[in-house]
Here is the input.
Amino acid sequence: MKAIIFEQHGGAEVLKPANLPDPQIKADEALIEVRACALNHLDVWVRNGLPGIKFPSPHILGNDIAGVVREVGELVSWARPGDEVMVQPGVACGHCAECLAGHDNMCDEYDIIGYRRDGGYAELVAVPGVNVIPKPKNLSWAEAAALPLTGRVPARRGASPAARPGARRRRGRPDRDRPLHRRPAVTALQLRPCLRSSIRAFAC
Ligand SMILES: [Zn+2]
Here is the structure.
């Protein structure tokens, strides 16, 4: 597949095109054909490098993805090849105490697609199947790609435990980058005026 990668930290000049092997999905993952990937300032932080955080190399940026499902693993029964989807970018282990309590943004293994794992600056991206969200039909690819990670910022205000005074904070993570509790549904509620009739499709 074609992708935009970087192999050393720096300015925009370190980004370069490359041909890479297609991602191989696991049983609980989906392979997405990227139709649009929004830009996020997290891309700049990762590209520049962050103290104490090691990123894979070569690395593919891109947190906010909309596309078409090409393939699903055997454990993914709720999405099929051909489905038009958005990708919720937060990735957690799903089985620790925080995840089981619904606080997956507090998971010690918490990651973001395009942060420490490959993202959407590519023709294909492998994502956890649980992160696949139906794309509202009235949104263009660009509009759908603009929502997943950036949509958490307004949605988080007043909705996430991490946004409340006194909430437990993880050291070293900027508040503005802190993810959202119960993300798809809460994001949909907060963005309801924008999404209108698509709310039911989005709030899965
Ligand atoms: Zn966890």
Remarks:
- Strands lie at 2-5, 16-19, 29-38, 64-72, 84-87, 90-91, 111-112, 124-128, 132-134.
- Residues 155-184, 196-204 have pLDDT under 50 and may be disordered.
- Residues 41-48 form the longest helix (8 residues).
- Residues 2-202 form a domain with the Quinone Oxidoreductase; Chain A, domain 1 fold (CATH 3.90.180.10).
